[in-house]
Task: inverse folding
C-alpha cells in the first residue's frame, strides 16, 4: 500500500520533552517513552491530582503502567501522520518532530517487520507500530489463541490494535512482562530437551510404561469387591492417569491443556514411590465410580431401549396429556450400545448421525433425564394462547434480579409459568408446567399452596403474599 520499503526504513524521533521540566503531554496522549534506565516503551498519559505536576503514570494495558518517576523524556505518537512520506518512493529516513538541535540527541528505530512477510512479534513483546493509515502507535503483542492473527494491547479493558491494521512494527525494549514470557518460553525449551530421553525409575515402573497394565492390575483387585468392574468403568473417573515425561523422567500423571498456549500440563502423582503403591491408589481413586457403575442397577429393565422409552413416555403422559409419540422424533433419540466393551445408554439429537454416551448410574436416573427431555418437548409443542404478568417491585434472588414472571395459558387449556432473572453480566430463564394436581384444589388459596411447591418463593421471587391478592391472576387461572 505504501511505496516505502519497511525493511530499510528508519524513524528518527527528535525534540523530546523532559519530565524534569514538568513538561507533560495532554491527558490520554499516547507517547514514546525514554526511561531513566535508557530503555524505550510507550503509554498513554494519566496525571494524578489536578494534573499540574509531573506525577502520574503512563498506561500500557490493564494493570500495566509506567510511573512518571521512571520516565526521563517523552515524545508524542498521536500528533503525526506519515502518509505523505510513506507514499514517496525511495524514502528510507523519516524525521519525527523537529530535526536534532545541537546538544539534543535524537533516537532512531529501524529493523521494521511486516505481517505481510509472515513475521510477528514474540508473545508479550511491546512494539512501536506504523499503522496502515500512516499514524504511529504502540502496544503489547498478544496472539489470538484459537485463530490466526493477534492484536497489540495498548490500554485497559484489552483495548487493542488488530494486526490487520498494522503496516509495520519493530520491538521496543524488554520489560518485566516480556522478560517473564521469555523465561516461560525458555523453560518450555529446556523441558522439551530434557524429555527427549526421559529416565525410568525401576521401582515406580516395575511393570513397564504402558498405563493400561497398571489399570488392569488395579482391576484385578477391584473385582474382588465388584465382579462387574471393567477398565472402561474405571476410566470414567476423570481425569484419567497416564504415564508422561516430566523434567526428564517418566511419571504417573494427569494431563490437562494449558488454554493460553495449548501446551500440556502434567500434574504428577506424589502419594507413593512404587508401582504397587500406585496400583493400590488407582483402586481407591476409581472405587466409587466402579461401585456406581453396576449394570444390574443401570439396566434394571433389561437392554431393550424401547422399554425405557415407553416407560418414560407413559410417566410424562400422565400430566402432559397432549404429548403423543409422533412428537418424540423432534427431541433426543436413545439407544443402548456397546462402548469400549461396556453397555451404555447413548443418545443423539433428532436426525444427527453420531451418538454420545449418556452417563448415568441407574435406571431411575436415566428415566428422570428422559422424562425431563419429554416434558420440555411437550411444552415446546403446546402453543401459548394467553399470558398474564403479575406486577412486582424490585426483587433480588441470591444476587440475581427478578426480571420477568409470566403465567401462560396453553392451547390445550393447561398452564405454565416462565421466570427470568439476571445480574449485570448474565441471566437465565426457566419454564415450569403447572400440573393438573394444582388445579384439583377447590380454592385459589389451596391452589397457591400446591403451585408454590413447584415454583417456591424463596427460589423464584413471588410468594403467596404476592399472588393471593392478585384478583386478575386468580381469574386468569380460572378461579
Result:
Amino acid at each position: 500500500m505504501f511505496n516505502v520499503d519497511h525493511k530499510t526504513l528508519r524513524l528518527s524521533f527528535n525534540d523530546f520533552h523532559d519530565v524534569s521540566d514538568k513538561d507533560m503531554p495532554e491527558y490520554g496522549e499516547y507517547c514514546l517513552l525514554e526511561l531513566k534506565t535508557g530503555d524505550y516503551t510507550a503509554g498513554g498519559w494519566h496525571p494524578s491530582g489536578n494534573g499540574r505536576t509531573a506525577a502520574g503514570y503512563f498506561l500500557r494495558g490493564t494493570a500495566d503502567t509506567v510511573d512518571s518517576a521512571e520516565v526521563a523524556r517523552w515524545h508524542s505518537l498521536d500528533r503525526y501522520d506519515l502518509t505523505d512520506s510513506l507514499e514517496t518512493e525511495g524514502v528510507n529516513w523519516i524525521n519525527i518532530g523537529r530535526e536534532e538541535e545541537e546538544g539534543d540527541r535524537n533516537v532512531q528505530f529501524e529493523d521494521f517487520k511486516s505481517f505481510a512477510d509472515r513475521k510477528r512479534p514474540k508473545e508479550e513483546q511491546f512494539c512501536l507500530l506504523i499503522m496502515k493509515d500512516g499514524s504511529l502507535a504502540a502496544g503489547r503483542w498478544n496472539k489470538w489463541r484459537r485463530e490466526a492473527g493477534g492484536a497489540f494491547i495498548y490500554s485497559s479493558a484489552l483495548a487493542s490494535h488488530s494486526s490487520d491494521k498494522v503496516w509495520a512494527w519493530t520491538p521496543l525494549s524488554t520489560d518485566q512482562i516480556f522478560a517473564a514470557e521469555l523465561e516461560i518460553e525458555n523453560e518450555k525449551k529446556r523441558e522439551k530437551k530434557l524429555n527427549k530421553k526421559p529416565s525410568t525409575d525401576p521401582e515406580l515402573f516395575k511393570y513397564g510404561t504402558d498405563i493400561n497394565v497398571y489399570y488392569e492390575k488395579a482391576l484385578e483387585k477391584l473385582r474382588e469387591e465388584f465382579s462387574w468392574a471393567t477398565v472402561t468403568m474405571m476410566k470414567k473417573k476423570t481425569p484419567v492417569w497416564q504415564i508422561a515425561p516430566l523434567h526428564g523422567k517418566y511419571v504417573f500423571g494427569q494431563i490437562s491443556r494449558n488454554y493460553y498456549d495449548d501446551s500440556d500440563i502434567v500434574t504428577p502423582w506424589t502419594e507413593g514411590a512404587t508401582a504397587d503403591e500406585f496400583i493400590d491408589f488407582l483402586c481407591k481413586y476409581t472405587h466409587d465410580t466402579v461401585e456406581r457403575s453396576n449394570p444390574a442397577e443401570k439396566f434394571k429393565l433389561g437392554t431393550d431401549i424401547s422399554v425405557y422409552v415407553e416407560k418414560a413416555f407413559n410417566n410424562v403422559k400422565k400430566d402432559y396429556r397432549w404429548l403423543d409419540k409422533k412428537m418424540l422424533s423432534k427431541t433426543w433419540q436413545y439407544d443402548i450400545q456397546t462402548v469400549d466393551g461396556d453397555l451404555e445408554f447413548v443418545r443423539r439429537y433428532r436426525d444427527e448421525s453420531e451418538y454420545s454416551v449418556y452417563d448415568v448410574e441407574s435406571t431411575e436416573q436415566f428415566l428422570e433425564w428422559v422424562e425431563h427431555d419429554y416434558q420440555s418437548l411437550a411444552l415446546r409443542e403446546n402453543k401459548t394462547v394467553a399470558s398474564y404478568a403479575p406486577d412486582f417491585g424490585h426483587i433480588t434472588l441470591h444476587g440475581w434480579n427478578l426480571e420477568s414472571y409470566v403465567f401462560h395459558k396453553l392451547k390445550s387449556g393447561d398452564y405454565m409459568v416462565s421466570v427470568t432473572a439476571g445480574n449485570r453480566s448474565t441471566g437465565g430463564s426457566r419454564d415450569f408446567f403447572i400440573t393438573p394436581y394444582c388445579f384439583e384444589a377447590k380454592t385459589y388459596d389451596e391452589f397457591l399452596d400446591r403451585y408454590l411447591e413447584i415454583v417456591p418463593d424463596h427460589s423464584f421471587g413471588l410468594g403467596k403474599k404476592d399472588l393471593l391478592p392478585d384478583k386478575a391472576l386468580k381469574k386468569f387461572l380460572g378461579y
Q: What stands out?
A: The longest strand covers residues 400-410. The first helix runs from residue 83 to 86. The two ends are 75 Å apart (CA to CA). Residues 405 and 419 are 5 Å apart (CA to CA).
